[in-house]
Fold ATP-dependent RNA helicase.
Amino acid sequence: MIKMSKKKETVKEIFASCSFSSLGLHSTLCDQLRERLGFEAPTKVQAQAIPVILSGRHVLVNAATGTGKTVAYLAPIINHLQSYSPRIDRSSGTFALVLVPTRELCLQVYEILHKLLHRFHWIVPGYVMGGENRSKEKARLRKGISILVATPGRLLDHLKHTSSFLHTNLRWIIFDEADRILELGFGKEIEEILDILGSRNIGSIGEGNEVSNVKRQNLLLSATLNEKVNHLAKISLETPVLIGLDEKKLPEDKSHVRFGSLESDVKEEVEHPSTTMRSTTEDFKLPAQLVQRYVKVPCGSRLAVLLSILKHLFDTEVSQKLVVFFSTCDAVDFHYSLLSEFQWSPHSQPDMELKQLFLRCKTFRLHGNMKQEDRRTTFGAFKTEKKALLLSTDVAARGLDFPKVKCIIQYDSAGEATEYVHRVGRTARLGERGDSLLFLQPVEMDYLQDLEKHGVSLTEYPLLKVLDSFPLYGQKPRVKKFLTTESHPWILSLQNALESFIIHEILSCSQK
């Protein structure tokens, strides 16, 4: 009863007490949200954002990951386009442009868009991104794409070199995961794109159409706020409505800046068009149902501890899905090879037992050095699995929605505190409970203080209790009172097995 009560409270915190139709969305689109995406009711972020976006105002959304931000901007855009009379067609070119930081997020947004447009066949979705065939993209752009999802570099390439790319009717520009776009170094590309398209200019949908001469509407979505995001907002947004920002975090001096608010009349004229958000520390939004822990591990025991925790999580949960983050592609490849092949005897009696895989689950890897097709296959396969492990660099840390991921492990701590937020954001989505675990070496403990500056507090993971839960056959009873991680019998046993396995693999390779 207690667990059910907590879940009901979490659902109440995430979801609004209204319906999608009450927000002004067409009944057919509401049906698509329910049938195709499983949304029975809007999240609070969606309930706040959709009416404002429908009104035509510029919007800045700062909300926790996993709160339905993608639907919050796609639904109003589709609602507008389906209402145009006469109907739009491919020859009208691109009306909405969604900019995202990574290829994986590009595919994910396109997939959601494709589902929502199932009954609006005359609205054509599409995407362009690095790693894809330019000629095929040019052909699709020539035919016409109503709503285009793109990565910045490839979009800029087409704006400069694809003359058949029609964007004169562009009404919406959306910056999804804006902070990540800028962190990846796309700032100059974004400014060039805005120079080409015009940051706030007026679009015309064509003669005889009742929606001609509509004003450009820009939307910016970000889980964290910093000076770079502030600059992008200043050059792209005009008197935006701010969603998800606490009043206490706004500038005290409002004499030069007047912000829109959810309570204000959307038709109200704003006297001062500038946009500024001062922030000495970035604003972090994390789901309330996310349980955050850390584990302090000496360097020499890190691998054995990681494997122990993974084994404990998979052995105690039937349908477990985890993501482990590493700082480099090489680290992902090494651990992927190890976990895919490492076998051992569960009773530490190799002569009497048939060895088996240490982790009995499907293991995947994802990083930027993989071929585009391999990344896409991995992305799709991990999403459909019920019990699986994904080893990844930060290529999977932003915006990607992996269903039912219950735990995030950061084996290598993120360089920036902001990246910590986006890594843990792969779990605890849409009201579901989630766990995160941060590995820290003794010399890295100050990292916790950095997180606390942003209001993020972690509790210690009960590592010794987990290690004690593993059976050790033929061992003397343990003296728990003075036990340390590196001297724990289970860790020592596992390290010996790992060393033997790695030596065997090296010898096998040398003999080939």
In short: Residues 109 and 332 are 25 Å apart (CA to CA). Residues 207-212, 247-281 have pLDDT under 50 and may be disordered.
